[in-house]
Each structure stands twice: as structure tokens, then as C-alpha cells.
């Protein structure tokens, strides 16, 4: 029986740890079919197959479908393999990488990339590192573990803390909010 008197943290510490595998191709195909109906798109079999091999995240799929829907008159006609391939190539070229975001943040804060990725706890480096982690998470959607790995093998909870802290600080500090907007503008420009 669960003791409700224990703090939540103690109750969750004995939780089940489960490995989450990437979705299987059939699950992705089902998602593609469902989303194509929702977006009002008809995909050829080859186009659907290409998407199921290339797409790994629901957000990415939705971005591709938005692009396809807004290309000319997509409603009702069959979307070809070539159209899907062109949109996927466009999306791949637009994808920001963790290193791209971090480089711009380092330039903004005038710090060296290697030092931001180091274990240093100097305040100027910590602020730049946390900002970079926050922007990487916001702009790339990379998993917390991948972000932590890039920043010197840090734990995913460290990245989560950084993201929450920067989000909170942005609401409190106008200069930090301005810094985020300026870095985002550089990355988009």
C-alpha cells in the first residue's frame, strides 16, 4: 500500500526505470497516415515511405506537412515523392545544430566555446552555458541527454535546471530577455 504521508520525491525514487526505444517504422507510418488526413494531404506510397524512413519526431513531420500544405494547391491532389524529397532537403538545410546555437551564444557573451563546454563554474561562463542550453532546447528540440553530452557530459537534470532557470530569469530580467531575442535573431538571420 502506498503511504501518502511520504514526500513525493521519496515515493518516486523507487520508480520503474524503462528504456524508451525509437518508434518502429509501422508506428511512424500510422502517424503519417493520421497526420496526412488531419492536414488534408494525399501522399503517394513512395512519398509516405520516404517520410517513414526520414522522420523521427512528430514536430518535424508536422513542419513538413505544413510546408506541403502551403505549396500551391495541395488540397485534393496526390503529393509526389519529389515534392516530399524537396521539402525534406529544405528542412535539413534549415535545421540548427547544437554547435551552431552555442557558437552564436559564445560570440554574444564573448567567451570561448571550449570554456563554455568545460566544467568551469565561473559566473560569466555559467550564464553563457545556461543560455546556450536553453536556446538549444528551444530552437533544436534536441533531447536533454544529447544537450548535456555536448556540454561536457552533464546530466540531463542539469540541462533541465538551466532551461528552467533561464526561462524564469527572462521573465524577471529585461536585459536577459533582450539577449535571447538578439541571439535568436542572429540565428534566424
Can you give a write-up of this model?
The chain has 189 residues and is an all-alpha fold. Helices cover 69% and strands 2% of the residues. The protein contains eleven helices and two strands; from the N terminus they run ααβααβααααααα. The protein has helices spanning 8-13, 25-39, 45-54, 58-69, 81-94, 98-109, 113-116, 123-140, 144-150, 156-172, 174-188; strands at residues 42-43, 78-79. The protein has a two-stranded parallel sheet with strand order 1-2. Helix 2 (25-39) crosses helix 3 (45-54), helix 9 crosses helix 10 (156-172) and helix 10 (156-172) crosses helix 11. It is globular and about 55 Å long. 23% of the residues are buried.
Q: What value does the Rg take, in angstroms?
A: 21 Å
How does the major sheet shape up? Answer: 2 strands, parallel
Distance between the termini: 57 Å
Q: Total number of β-strand segments? A: 2
Chain oligomer state = single chain
Question: Spans with pLDDT under 50 lasting ≥5 residues?
Answer: none
Helix content range: 55-70%
Share of residues in strands: under 5%
The chain-level structural class is mainly alpha
Number of helices: 11
Question: Main sheet: which strands, in order across?
Answer: 1-2
pLDDT averaged residue by residue? 82
Shape: globular
Q: Helix and strand succession?
A: HHEHHEHHHHHHH
Amino acid at each position: 500500500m502506498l503511504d501518502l504521508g511520504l514526500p513525493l520525491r521519496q515515493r518516486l525514487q523507487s520508480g520503474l526505470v524503462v528504456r524508451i526505444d525509437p518508434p518502429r517504422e509501422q508506428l511512424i507510418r500510422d502517424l503519417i497516415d493520421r497526420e496526412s488526413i488531419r492536414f488534408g494531404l494525399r501522399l503517394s506510397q513512395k512519398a509516405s515511405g520516404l517520410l517513414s524512413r526520414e522522420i523521427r519526431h512528430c514536430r518535424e513531420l508536422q513542419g513538413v506537412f505544413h510546408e506541403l500544405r502551403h505549396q500551391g494547391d495541395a488540397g485534393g491532389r496526390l503529393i509526389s515523392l519529389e515534392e516530399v524529397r524537396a521539402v525534406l532537403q529544405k528542412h535539413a538545410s534549415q535545421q540548427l545544430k547544437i554547435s551552431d546555437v552555442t557558437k552564436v551564444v559564445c560570440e554574444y557573451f564573448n567567451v570561448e566555446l571550449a570554456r563554455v563546454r568545460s566544467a568551469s563554474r565561473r559566473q560569466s561562463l555559467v550564464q553563457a552555458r545556461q543560455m546556450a542550453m536553453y536556446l538549444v532546447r528551444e530552437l533544436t528540440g534536441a533531447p536533454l541527454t544529447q544537450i548535456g553530452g555536448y556540454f561536457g557530459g552533464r546530466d540531463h537534470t542539469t540541462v533541465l535546471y538551466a532551461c528552467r532557470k533561464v526561462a524564469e530569469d527572462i521573465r524577471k530580467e529585461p536585459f536577459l530577455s533582450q539577449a535571447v531575442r538578439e541571439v535568436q535573431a542572429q540565428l534566424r538571420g
